[in-house]
Amino acid sequence: MSADSPRSDTLESVRRAGVETTGIEIVDEVDRTARPADLFWPWFAANVSVFGISYGSFVLDFGISFGQALLVSVIGIVVSFLLCGLVAVAGKRGSAPTMVISRAAFGVRGQKLPGVVSWVVSWVVSIGWETFLAIMATLATATVMRELGWGGGTATKVVAMLVVAALIVGASVAGYHLIMRMQSWLTWLTGLATIVYVGLTVGHIEWSTLTSLEGGSFQQVLGALIMVMTGFGLGWINIAADWSRYQSREASSGAIVAWNTLGGALAPALLVAYGIGLAGSDETLRAGIVADPVGTLATILPTWYLVIFGVAAVLALVSGAVLGIYSSGLTLLSLGVRIPRPAAAGLDGLLLTLGTIYVVFFAENFLGPFQSFLITLGVPLAAWAGIFLSDLALRRRDYDEEALFDARGRYGSVDWISIGTMVLASVIGWGLVTNAMPDSTWNNWQGYLLKAFLGTELVEDPAGNYWAGDWSYANLGVIVALGIAFVVTLVARRGIVRRQEER
User: Fold this and answer.
1) Contact 173, 327 (CB under 8 A)
2) What is the pLDDT, as a whole number, of residue 77?
3) Do residues 502 and 406 make contact, with C-beta atoms less than 8 angstroms apart?
4) Per residue in 50-63, pLDDT tens?
5) pLDDT digit string (tens) for 416-434?
6) Fewer beta carbons within 10 Å, N or C terminal of the chain?
7) In whole angstroms, how far apart are CA 76 and each of 68, 225, 399, 477?
8) Which long-range contacts (CB under 8 A, 24 or more apart) does 206-214 make?
9) pTM over 0.85
């Protein structure tokens, strides 16, 4: 399609198309009434899920001590959500979703190159996150039913999966304002249920067992840190401006960063710390979380609280998935796919259901596919984030809203420097990570730089293949990709950004 085609994705054509339903339009000034403190609710509600407790087991699986696990969890969670807070500032300055604002760095059409820039990566990441949240909700429902003696087999999982998918898709279709109100309600409901859970299970923590856990190497600590960052803030970073675009232009950027960071990091930091205590005290619980992260947590509860816990856990997971599917719909529409918003949500819902079916009914456990997903897509997402944050840091003015929709405008059609930077950073990053499923032939191509220079090798073992080498599970490529992308953009695009802002 030519730049001057009558169907060109200009701002005016988006406004005429029906806009609040599609969600990629520039927010009108009259609708920009949100305050920075309003950002606390969606971020807190989406991250107060008891799934955060399960992360305690994931962190300890790196072979680190109780103190090391606490340190990397708090640092990883706070820093990763701080990055989300910085991206959220772009929402105020650009009045558009994250992936529309990202056109300033990649070019209006450059963002659409399949498999290269972050449109596709962002959409797959959003789909992946909501799918894994739906998977956990399905597994948790089945486990609670089994504990109550009400079944928990295949039929229960099928019904739970369909109900969960319907809730997620239905809420996402409703749009921003209903979602914001819903998140406020769910914050109180899930927060209270989680507090009661802690009160009922705190007796399972054994401090003598925790303090006896042996410390890990620097590489093990680094791997746990990057896993936490990828699993929390970096997993949300590609949608962080979607909720701040309704902020008043007069809103303090510092306040936006602070409320975004506080809302996202507060609950996970506390929940993961508690989860470390539980998982480190009970080896059986820790092993069970690998297969069913949320449902296993119900096995140590008294029977009378199981239904309450199950409902609260599912609603918390649905809450997080709603944010993901809402934003994945925005990204899909921003790719130029011309379908109504309900159809976009329906397509996402279909993919969510298929992914849930695979992990629930065919995968051997949850943790392998989950960590493989985080690392494989975490590398290019980190590269995109480095470019976006560096581009944002270089800009001294608000974004030109019209130019975000016009390939002939100041941001141009394709920015080859950004595209090349993302490709370079991703290729290097993938060479410095390993797949968490060594038995998976489709995804064990990563780690080529680790194999060539740092002694990593695949060990074939009848009990299960694994990667050998000090750096094998350090996840180094995620942070390297982010750093390379940030520095290269800061140096190579400084003049480009200056010229754009002078036009």
Assistant:
1) no
2) 97
3) no
4) 778 989 999 999 99
5) 999 999 999 999 999 999 8
6) C
7) 12, 5, 30, 16
8) 206/281, 209/280, 209/281, 210/66, 210/276, 210/277, 210/280, 210/281, 211/66, 213/60, 213/64, 213/65, 213/66, 213/280, 214/63, 214/65
9) no
